[in-house]
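Reviewers of the previous submission asked for a worked example of the structure-prediction workflow described in the proposal, so we include one complete record here. The input consisted solely of the amino acid sequence. No template or homolog information was supplied to the procedure at any stage.
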Amino acid sequence: MPTFKRHRFPPQIIAHAVWLYFRFPLSLRLVEELPLERGIAVSYETIRRWGKKFGADYARRLRRKRPSGNDVRHLDEVVVTIAGRKNWVWRAVDQDGYVFDEIVQNRRHTKAARQLLTRLLKKQGIAPKRMITDKLRSYGAARRQVMPHVEHRSPKGLNSRAENSHAPLRKRADDARLRSPGSLRRFISVFSAVRNLFVSPRSALQNRAHRIQATAEWKAAAGTTS
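From that input alone, the workflow returned the following structure tokens.
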């Protein structure tokens, strides 16, 4: 568990602020306002440092979804500019929007697509039933090298699941004050892990129960259940 020595605030407040920061599409300054409503004055810069220091440890403790041979993988890439340089975030999500893996590359080519597919196959130990992408030819070339037996579709408009998953990251990347590709990798690893925890089931009837369970899992990962 992370150590909170020499921190003025208790673990519950720190964990809650980190949760707010990664869970919701809020700027750091807006996250700063929420504890203030309860009489807790903490600066947005402190919250940013908490996220950097404790976020990765919290994320490692969150339960991961097990892949299935019936899963459909939606693959897509989005550009994040840092210090005037383009960085491509390549992402693979399933049919529910759960992020299974993502990598950061400085190019948008077959080598990067192949690396993403290779990581997916190695980490999950099982190929998906189908992969869906946009029209970028790099995906087809990488699929033929890594997953030649997996069905590949790239019709227009069918990859909205992956494309929509980029929207929260786009909103947060600028506010996160990322200074290097390494800081981008660290940020998205925590951001996606927390987001995955709260990916809602398709049934509206299960939504509330799922969110209650997800909140309990977050508290357990942050060590604030007592």
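Residues 46 and 109 are 38 Å apart (CA to CA). We consider this example representative of the routine output the project will generate in years two and three.
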